[in-house]
Design brief:
Two copies of one chain form a homodimer. By secondary structure, the first copy, chain A, is of the alpha/beta class. The first copy, chain A, is built from seven helices and eleven strands. A seven-stranded mixed beta sheet of chain A has the order 5-2-1-6-7-11-10, sandwiched between helices. The first copy, chain A, has a two-stranded antiparallel sheet with strand order 3-4. The radius of gyration of chain A is 16 Å and the shape is globular. The termini of chain A are far apart.
């Protein structure tokens, strides 16, 4: 099975690396990090660079597509080579997936019209304006589309996807392999659990002020 | 604040990228990925390369050291430039930390003698043989040492560390920023919660068969 994870400048690293860590452990699977132009892509902080090993046209038809998000998403909302690749690949893919604001890119490319999908919590309204039936859940499946909420949610989505692809036992083995028994020290990970004043302060600024 | 994350060939990506995603969001902080030789480091699957931007001697005294794990850890158990860097940096560091089998490297460098620490669940015995007081917890603090269990545990440890460094409110804001409200689809993330037959099957082989 071929899995392509899209990289671009100013992506959020964990959006891509969380799912990679899960999906690369599926049997007989190759994950390839792709980009419009191969080479190093600096993440949103500028402090980490991930390498895109292949150009988009080297993997025209992966079985699974994964589009991460991050501030660089805003540069990928117009038609162009990335949208063309996404549309052609989506036609033949088994699964088309996104994490965080990656779903905005899928929507802008025309892949989410009328579909149920989710995104980063501050971007839910924007996703709705793109003609998507927005659902505020950790991850959402609609047909062969799977979209996750923000950043760390890609890990949960990928485990659920692993179970659909290879069965629950394989997915559980992967979960044990990455020792994914989360114990967050706070209840603050979503706008419904975080202290209200924190949520309001957050809404008032961009993610990376 | 200067944070150095050590990279090496065949590390497990999420061990490094989870903590990076948390700690890079601390105020006035710079994370630098360092290695004995700068450049691309291929992770354990061979399918992702992270870039080490600096050599060890460019960051002799970071405030925080973080050592990830992964199969490549086994190449870093003998004395040499990495151990020398770790020992000198640890003398002046505010926090010295590890994720997964990274604690084996810290122990081999002599930094964990008689200390309470943890590691990846299949490596707990090995850590004990290195003179460490092994604790099977999600993460363990002992003085300025913080060690996390396997792979994904680095996220939890880093949030707890962020709270100690900058206060709970900042840590909660980071947790909301990465939307860390985990909903693993299974209870299988540790040897105490996973189905026993899965745990046994896992113990019988290396992590990456």
């Amino acid at each position: 099975m071929q899995i392509a994870i899209l990289l671009f400048d100013r992506l959020t690293a964990l959006d891509a690396v969380g799912p990679y860590e899960v999906l690369s452990r599926l049997p007989e699977t190759t994950v390839t990090f792709v980009a419009e132009r191969p080479g190093l892509k600096r993440t949103d902080t500028g402090q980490l660079a991930l390498n895109a090993d292949a150009a988009l046209d080297e993997l025209p038809y992966p079985d699974i597509l994964l589009v991460p998000g991050g501030p660089g998403q805003s540069e990928l909302m117009s038609d162009g080579p990335v949208h063309e690749w996404l549309r052609a690949a989506h036609e033949r893919s088994t699964w088309t997936t996104s994490v965080c604001t990656g779903s905005l890119i899928l929507a802008a490319a025309g892949l989410l019209a009328g579909k149920r999908a989710t995104t980063y919590w501050t971007a839910l309204e924007e996703l709705g304006r793109l003609g998507v039936e927005v659902v505020q859940e950790r991850f959402v499946f609609d047909g062969k589309l799977a979209t996750a909420a923000g950043v760390s949610a890609g890990i949960d989505m990928s485990l659920a996807l692993a179970a659909r692809i290879a069965g629950e036992q394989v997915a559980q083995a992967i979960q044990l392999g990455i020792e994914y028994e989360p114990q967050p020290p706070f209840r603050a990970g979503s706008p419904t659990t975080a202290p209200p004043e924190l949520v309001e302060a957050f809404r008032g600024r961009s993610r990376f002020d």
